[in-house]
């Protein structure tokens, strides 16, 4: 894990040099604790250690980037990790869960109904040595940790910052850190997740809520983790032309969306756009070999 691997890649050429577009390569921190996951976890982990906790406990689905990132980051900081996983235990574990186990995470499988009631899970598993992290790292602590995504490199020249949105924690952190001349645009990867605006605002102060941001709901490709042949082609194209690896759940939809919005005239030709590469590439292992060229 090395946040110094992050750099800003100029991809204007991919946009025919009509627009000034770059991408913050936060995916390069680590293949597993990549992108926003390192930033979202950092203050949860710091607080857990400061409070004398020895175990991180959290929640996620069987392909969750958050789960596997917690397992590796926790282990690297000398902490035990426990993951409560949505759904019955499958016959064959996903690559994500296999990795989490290999990193030392103890997995508990919970039915979909029980998974919805996280307070029940936390109250049935009370242990003073455990620090709980909400699913996806959602929370003010997670968002505060994301603020340094905009200071790790000089992002002041950019006036438009665009990211993918799941729980909205990363976007909330980017809004917190954004300068007055910057607008933050989030592309939601969930279908019709209209409540996301309120969920993001819940992580902001009243003043931060007045900053310049908007959510776009047009690039979910059918819903969370759904994809189309066109999206796969786009991913291969991005790699061929820019050596830019993208994941199919978040960042491929993000870059596709930015390109589509650009062709529709969404951006002022003088604007300087920064896309956030939030990582997540480990999820591509669920594809059949040969689907992707990278
Ligand atoms: C988890 C994840 C996101 C979503 O982040 P939120 O803070 O939940 O909105 C975006 N991109 C990638 C690659 C992720 O793994």
What does this structure look like?
The chain has a 6-stranded mixed sheet, sandwiched between helices. Strands 5-4-3-6 form a 4-stranded parallel sheet, with helices on both faces. Helix 7 links the parallel strand 7 (160-165) and strand 8. It is of the alpha/beta class. It has helices at 36-50, 65-76, 95-102, 112-115, 118-124, 140-146, 169-177, 196-201, 206-209, 229-242, 251-263, and strands at residues 8-10, 20-25, 55-60, 80-86, 106-110, 130-132, 160-165, 183-188, 213-216, 272-277. Helix 1 packs across helix 6 (140-146), helix 2 packs parallel to helix 3 (95-102) and helix 6 (140-146) packs across helix 7 (169-177). The two termini are 21 Å apart. The longest helix is centred in the first third of the chain and has 15 residues, at 36-50. The chain is built from 11 helices and 10 strands. The chain binds pyridoxal-5'-phosphate. Pyridoxal-5'-phosphate (PLP) binds next to helix 1, helix 2, strand 7 and helix 7.
Main traits of this protein?
294 residues, alpha/beta, 4-stranded parallel sheet, binds pyridoxal-5'-phosphate
């Amino acid at each position: 894990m090395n946040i110094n691997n992050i750099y800003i890649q100029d991809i204007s050429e991919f946009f025919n040099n009509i627009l000034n577009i770059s991408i913050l390569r936060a995916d390069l921190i680590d293949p597993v604790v990549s992108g926003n996951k390192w930033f979202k976890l950092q203050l949860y982990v710091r607080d857990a250690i400061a409070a004398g906790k020895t175990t991180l406990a959290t929640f996620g689905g069987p392909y969750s980037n958050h789960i596997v990132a917690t397992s590796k980051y926790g282990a690297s900081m000398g902490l035990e990790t426990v993951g409560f996983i949505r759904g019955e235990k499958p016959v064959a574990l996903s690559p994500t869960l296999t990795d989490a186990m290999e990193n030392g995470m103890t997995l508990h499988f919970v039915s979909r109904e029980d998974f919805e009631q996280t307070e029940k899970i936390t109250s049935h598993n009370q242990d003073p040595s455990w620090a709980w992290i909400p699913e996806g790292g959602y929370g003010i602590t997670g968002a505060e940790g994301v603020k340094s995504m905009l200071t790790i490199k000089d992002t002041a020249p950019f006036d438009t910052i665009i990211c993918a949105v799941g729980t909205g924690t990363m976007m909330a952190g980017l809004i917190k850190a954004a300068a007055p001349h910057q607008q933050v645009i989030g592309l939601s990867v969930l279908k019709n997740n209209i409540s996301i605006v309120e969920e993001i605002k819940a992580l902001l102060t009243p003043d931060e809520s007045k900053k310049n941001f908007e959510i776009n709901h047009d690039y979910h490709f059918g819903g969370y983790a759904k994809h189309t042949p066109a999206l796969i082609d786009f991913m291969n194209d991005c790699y061929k032309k820019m050596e830019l690896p993208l994941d199919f759940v978040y960042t491929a939809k993000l870059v596709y969306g930015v390109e589509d919005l650009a062709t529709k005239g969404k951006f002022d030709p003088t604007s300087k756009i920064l896309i956030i590469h939030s990582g997540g590439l480990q999820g591509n292992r669920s594809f059949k070999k040969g689907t992707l060229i990278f």
